[in-house]
């Protein structure tokens, strides 16, 4: 049986470590995406619906942050939560919380920038039409998100896709600890380095299926909007 | 524009609206009466939409005061004006979802019970001639249907004042008739309508007050607008009865309710004149007002007829209130609607 066969065997046999790593990856990615959406969507709406000095430069900066290397974010978070860092006392380093925080920082500019961009393309009359019909500020917010829901969902899916496949943050601040903070990507990096291709390949298959699933969902959302 | 002492629906004084540092609307003084149709006409960019947005409290003037039923709009009156007036934009802008979701939006934000919301939504759609459209996708309607849904979305709120911005632009003839019927039914129910339009025929038919906007300023109306009906016809003329006068108009078939006579087509003389003018009516000058380099003279001929004359002509005629005179105009100067 070749390496690929053994990798598939690991998947179908329900190997506990494979599925724990998968679950850990999904848990971290979903949590960080949720946090990024909770902060990024309202801020994106705010930026899209209000006019203030420096709005355009801010959007340009946010767009460029979307391409920030994951290791740079890992380094920044590491310097903040390491024992000598300003948040060292929280004891977050090499914990699931650290990975989620780092990945949320990675996802945040994606959600915010894509939300702001999608809402900016809505008809500028929308807030006024809603106002004349009696909507409150909160009503305008929700209707704006509703009107751009396809694009906002795309932003969430895109950020999920980015964090589920990243390795820099998870490795630097999660520490790749077995049965604790080891994710699909960090496990692949480790196992490949050790010459253990079966586990790496089986995790790679899961990652690819996840990525393809997210992509398919993204296309479906875009097509149906 | 009224001199009535009753509290006006809207009262504007010294209003100037600026956008990006440019004055886009300037109104020295204006009163709009309740229960009337005020129609705004003027070319694109003349300030019609700005005027309507101002009345709806959607933008604040740089200076001056806007009152709604005697309450300053930008102090305490904004909430009231928002609850009692609705603006229907020229761009109907329907939300994603069904027609029913669109029409019921305002009721849902007001937390009207679901049963009542459904009933009122169906009623509003019936009023605009789209009964049973609740479950249609809003994005799949024609332009005219979209505009009618936008009107239904406003009507469902039962506003006291309906503000309509070019509701007949880019819509079919059937939708135009529906809009006209809705304006009339709103007025019949005691409501008020302020509407902008390029459709002069519609403006003449509907207006109680016609406001002409140009370059962001209000200009005096350049037409006499007479309401009445066709009295009789012969081979040469249609005789239109308005007030206590009968006007000779071009021979036309149709059921007309409005006659329009441009003020600069009216001649005033002390005695009957021999001319091609087929209308010569006796009257008494009731008002003489300056209008730029000219004078606007109002003559009571059984109905008030306005004319523009030069100051030299006024001196020669001894123009003053109470002066008996003759008003003359050609039958072909009168347009019937």
In a nutshell, what does this entry contain?
Chain A is mainly alpha-helical. Chain A contains eleven helices and no strands. The longest helix of chain A is centred in the first third of the chain and has 34 residues, at 16-49.
The coarse silhouette of chain A is: globular
| Structural shape of chain B | globular
**Average pLDDT score of chain A:** 91
Radius of gyration of chain A: 20 Å
Overview of this protein structure:
The complex is a heterodimer of chains A (225) and B (337). Chain A is an all-alpha fold and 225 residues long. Chain A has eleven helices and no strands. The longest helix of chain A has 34 residues. Chain B is built from nine helices and 21 strands. A six-stranded mixed β-sheet of chain B has the order 6-7-8-3-9-10, sandwiched between helices. Chain B has a five-stranded antiparallel β-sheet with strand order 16-20-17-18-19. In chain B, strand 12 and strand 13 form a beta hairpin. Chains A and B meet through helix 6 and helix 7 of A and strand 6 and helix 4 of B.
């Amino acid at each position: 049986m070749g390496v690929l066969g053994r990798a598939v065997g690991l998947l179908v046999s329900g190997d506990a470590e494979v599925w724990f790593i998968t679950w850990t990856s999904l848990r971290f990615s979903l949590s960080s995406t949720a946090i990024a959406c909770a902060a990024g969507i309202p801020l994106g709406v705010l930026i899209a619906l209000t006019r203030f000095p420096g709005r355009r430069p801010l959007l340009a900066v946010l767009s460029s942050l979307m391409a920030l290397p994951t290791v740079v974010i890992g380094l920044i978070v590491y310097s903040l939560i390491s024992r000598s860092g300003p948040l060292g006392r929280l004891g977050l380093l090499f914990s699931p919380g650290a990975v989620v925080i780092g990945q949320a920082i990675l996802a945040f500019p994606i959600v915010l920038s894509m939300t702001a961009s999608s809402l900016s393309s809505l008809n500028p009359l929308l807030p006024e039409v809603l106002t004349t019909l009696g909507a409150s500020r909160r009503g305008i917010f929700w209707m704006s998100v509703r009107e751009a829901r396809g694009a906002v969902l795309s932003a969430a899916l895109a950020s999920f896709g980015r964090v589920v496949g990243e390795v820099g943050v998870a490795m630097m601040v999660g520490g790749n600890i077995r049965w604790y903070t080891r994710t699909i990507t960090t496990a692949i990096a480790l196992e490949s380095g050790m010459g253990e291709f079966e586990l790496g390949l089986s995790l790679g298959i899961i990652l690819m299926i996840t990525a393809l699933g997210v992509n398919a969902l993204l296309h479906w959302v875009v097509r149906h909007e | 524009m009224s001199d009535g002492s009753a509290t006006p629906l809207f009262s504007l004084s010294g209003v100037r609206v600026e956008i990006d540092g440019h004055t886009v609307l300037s109104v020295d003084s204006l009163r709009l009466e309740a229960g009337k149709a005020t129609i705004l006409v003027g070319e694109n960019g003349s300030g019609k939409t700005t005027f309507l947005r101002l009345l709806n409290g959607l933008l604040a003037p740089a200076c001056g005061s806007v009152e709604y039923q005697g309450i300053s709009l930008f102090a305490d009156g904004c909430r009231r004006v928002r609850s009692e007036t609705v603006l229907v934009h020229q761009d109907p802008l329907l939300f994603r979802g069904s027609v029913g979701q669109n029409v019921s939006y305002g009721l849902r934000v007001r937390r009207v019970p679901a049963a009542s919301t459904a009933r009122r939504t169906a009623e509003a759609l019936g009023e605009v001639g789209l009964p049973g459209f609740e479950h249609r996708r809003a994005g799949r309607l024609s332009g005219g249907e979209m505009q009618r849904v936008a009107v239904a979305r406003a009507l469902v709120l039962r506003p006291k004042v309906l503000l309509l911005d070019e509701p007949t632009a880019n819509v079919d003839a059937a939708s135009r008739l529906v809009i006209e019927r809705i304006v009339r039914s709103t007025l019949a129910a005691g409501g008020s309508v302020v509407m902008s339009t390029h459709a002069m025929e519609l403006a003449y038919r509907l207006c109680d007050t016609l406001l002409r906007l140009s370059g962001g300023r209000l200009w005096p109306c350049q037409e006499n607008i007479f309401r009445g009906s066709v009295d009789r016809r012969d081979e040469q003329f249609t005789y239109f009865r308005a007030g206590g006068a009968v006007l000779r108009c071009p021979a036309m078939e149709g059921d007309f309710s409005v006659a329009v006579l441009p003020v600069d087509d009216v001649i005033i003389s002390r005695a009957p004149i021999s001319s091609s003018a087929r209308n010569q009516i006796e009257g008494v000058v009731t008002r003489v007002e300056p209008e730029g380099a000219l004078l606007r003279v109002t003559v009571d001929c059984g109905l008030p007829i306005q004319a523009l004359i030069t100051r030299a002509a006024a001196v020669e005629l001894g123009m003053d209130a109470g002066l008996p005179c003759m008003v003359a105009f050609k039958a072909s100067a009168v347009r019937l609607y």
